[in-house]
Every structure is written in structure tokens, then in C-alpha cells.
Amino acid sequence: MSVLVVGSLALDSIETPFKSVQDVLGGSASYFSLAASLFTNVKVVAVVGEDFPDEYIELFRSKGIELEGVKRAPGKTFRWHGRYGYDLGDPATLGTFLNVFEKFDPMIPENYREMEYVFLANIDPQLQLNVLNQVKKPKLVACDTMNYWIENKPNELKEVLRHVNILIVNDSEIRALAKEPRILRAARTVLDMGPEILIVKRGEYGALMFSKEGIFWAPSYPLEEIVDPTGAGDTFAGGFMGYVTSQNTADSVEFKKGVIYGSVVASFTVEDFSVKRLASLQIEEISTRFQAFLKLSNLD
Amino acid sequence: MSVLVVGSLALDSIETPFKSVQDVLGGSASYFSLAASLFTNVKVVAVVGEDFPDEYIELFRSKGIELEGVKRAPGKTFRWHGRYGYDLGDPATLGTFLNVFEKFDPMIPENYREMEYVFLANIDPQLQLNVLNQVKKPKLVACDTMNYWIENKPNELKEVLRHVNILIVNDSEIRALAKEPRILRAARTVLDMGPEILIVKRGEYGALMFSKEGIFWAPSYPLEEIVDPTGAGDTFAGGFMGYVTSQNTADSVEFKKGVIYGSVVASFTVEDFSVKRLASLQIEEISTRFQAFLKLSNLD
Q1: CATH number of the domain within which B57 lies
Q2: What is the ipTM of this complex?
């Protein structure tokens, strides 16, 4: 089984109090596809500019990630410039340069339109709808969003939610979307909007999965070292969707395992800048940390 | 087995955006003893003023809590006045009136000095040391502290930590104590200061227990309703110590269960103001929620 991701490929410049990097590989589709490729075949739909380095294209190819849907447009690649404080919490955005991403209108290649597993990364909900109109009969669609769209495109976003199976967001996004600070009530409100499953990412506090079968709580392993939290959420989504796609089943145990795999892969991503750790990650390392995650909440 | 708690009995006035209450039962020893009494016998050492209502004395007695060590001193009872915002997060302190608590110097009654299970609630570390000098050969001593003592009495606190088995604090306290934002490193630093076990309370994000045997992560049940978070931490400590005392063993599985029982009892406390929910709590309700907590992180 393969998973299709529609999102951004970007060049990030990231400052932390300890080290800074410039024009490194970033964007939701980068983190998602590298994470998902650890479990399954991945096809990407995105846009890059003329300046997008060949070495990153080579990196994706070396992981078997298919790039037929990545368009190279005249102009520069989407760039993001962020700065983290000492706590490596939410970064300050110093600059967002959409460049070729400003006119991104995802065209799904003909031979991708039968894809059964689809992830709509955090882009304009109108574009997410355009993608949904192009894929024929997906088995499982998951999507992400952000506070900007919740505030500025609420109607389009609600239309997206009526057509996806899984929403993957963070604590503050779920509260904003439901206009409700209490997470349990917020979750119920959002499940009423359409998705059968809601996954709430909580960074170092783990992740929660809500569905009609109940609530599942995945821990997050306390980390020795956090270098750069950028991309953790998209990596989580990639690990989750990659694993679930590889299992090709609607069994709830596999969804729970998917949440843990998502947390596991994200816990590696933050150990280095950009996709550096993700690119060198081996499946054996994932298995070892998966077992450590399970052990965390075991009584004996 | 019995557990001895040394801490505060207070009258709290609490404001939330939804409701306010005045001069209700508060203080670390109140929450701790009512929570621990659900599992085991509890003896309290504390001080109250002449105005401390008889109904609260009666409440403790109805739960079998022994008050021989509670001194009634001339003057008023310790009072705290706090206000919560819409997120019911950290409260703003509008007033702290130590009153009789200002000259509190805990005297452990002669027949309490052989107690094997002891909890030193959040008081001046010098007073915690005074208590340790009076108990003869405790089997298990746990203590709490706060940022104020970490900053203002670091040497006394470090002396306390050399003599306790378990430190129970929250996220920000552990980071301040270790002067280290990364929780895993902070935990190691604190374990080097003396305690064999460190428990970090993280509110709605659960609790972590660190020891030389590894890390245990207890989830926190997403709550339908939070009315007043006051006393959740002391309730956690009471549930934990009460359960561990009742088992009278150093088995690590029982400590893990204790962490879950602490989280369970705390999840009830916040459902109403003051100790109201705690006072009506039945052991069957605790068992039911304990099973729900275990199920939260179960794969199947």
C-alpha cells in the first residue's frame, strides 16, 4: 500500500540559543514523507522553486519516495525563518516567504487518483478540498490544519472535516476549533463535525486519540536531547499514516500502534536539525524505542 | 499501617470565572489526609487558629483521621485567597495570610515518633528537618516543596533531600531545583541529591516517576468537568502515600499503582471546590476510574 501526501516542501532557517542553520530542508511534506517512508511507499504532491537543491531530491529518491507530483515552478522555494527560545517551545516566526507556494494549486497526477491512503498536510482548506475532488474513492483520509485557517477559513475547513476520516492537530488547535478549553468536550464537538478519529498531539506530553471506541493515550519518551522541535508534528503524522497504511486495516489496535509509532519517529526528529536524524533512522532503532514507549506505561 | 502528614490546614477563598467560594477548607494537610484516608489510617500534625470551624474537625474525624498533633493556637487560621482565569491554570495569589501558621514549629506527639510512613508537605525546609529529627526510624519519607523554598532556602532543602526517599513535585519545580530545562537530565540531577524516587506531577498531562529502575508514565484521565484545581497536587500525594502505606511493601509495581491511584483521586478533587468531592468519594468510584486509567494506555 502507498500513501499520498499533499503539502509543502520548504527551505527553513532556524535559530536556537545553541546553534543556527540556514536554508535546510523543511516543510510538512518533507517530514511527513521521510517518516512515512520508514513503513510504506510514499507519493508526494508539492511545489518547489528553481533553487530547490538536487541533494534533497536525491534524499527523497534514496528512500523510495515518489516525486512525480512535485512541480518545479519558476521562482524561489517556500522559505520559513524561525527562532526558538531556551525552552525550545513555540518558535517566533521571523519571516515567511511563500514564493512559489503562493500559487500552489495541487494537481494530482492521473495515476495517483486511485490512492486509498491520503494525508492533507496543513495547507489552505480550499486546496485540501481541491485535492479531495481529485482522488476517486480513498479508504482513509487524514488532515492537519492550523489556527490561521481555523480563524480565517472556517467554512472551507468545516467542509474538509465533513470529508476526512482523521483529524491530526495539537492542543491549542483543537481548543480553537471547538471554541472550548476542556479537551474532552472539545474532542466531542470536533468528532461531531465529521472525522471518526481525532488525534491530539501534545509534544513532550504525548498524544491522545479520540474515537467512538473511547480514548487512547500514548506517552512521549522523556528525551535526553532536544535540538530542534521543527517538524515533530508532521513527522508524527507521517509515522502514524505510514504505519497504518502498511497494515491496510481498520483494526483499532493498529491505529493505537500507529499513534505510538508516530510519537516514536517524532522523538527522533527533534534530536537534530531539519530531517537529519530522520534521514539516517533505521527501522531497528524504531522498534527498540517502540518497546521502550510501551514499557513506560506498563505496570510490571 | 498509618501515614503521618505534617503540613498546613487553611481556609481558602477561591475565585473562578464561573463561581467563587469563601473560607472553605484548604491547605496541604487537608487534601493529603482526606485522600490518604481512603486507603489507610492518617495522623496529622498541623496548627489551626481559634476560628477553625468545628465542622471541618468533624469531617476529619468522620474519616478516621487522627488529630492529636493538630494544635489550636491563639489567633486566626492560615488563609489563602486565589483567583483562576478561564483556562483554570495557575492561579493568581490575591492574598496569603499566614496568621498562626507563621510560628508553626511542628511538634510530633510522642506516640507518633515511631511512624514508618511520613509525608512532609510543602512547608519551610527547616521545619521539614525539624520533623525528620523527631521521627525515629521511618521506613519511607516523601516530601513536597515549591519554587519559593528552592530559591530562598536551597541549603536547608538540599539537607532535606539527603534524608527523604521520595520527592513529589511539579514540572516547573523540578526544572528550577535542577537548574535544567530538560526533564530527563533534571530528574537525574535531583536523584543524585538524595531521593531514590522522584515523582513529577504534570496536571492534565499525568505524572512521571523516575527511579534507578527506569521511568514510569501515568496518564491523566481527560475530565468532563474541572471546577477548582486547588489541592490537586496534595491530593495526588495523599492518594499515592495512602495506597503505598496500605500495601507496606517496597515493590515497584505497588509504587506504580500508587502513582495511578494518586492521579485518580486528584482527578476527583478538581471536580468541585475545596475538599467537597474528596469528602464524598467512595472506594468503588476510585476502583472504576483506576480501571479506566489503565485502559487509557492499553493497546487492546
Answers
A1: 3.40.1190.20
A2: 0.87
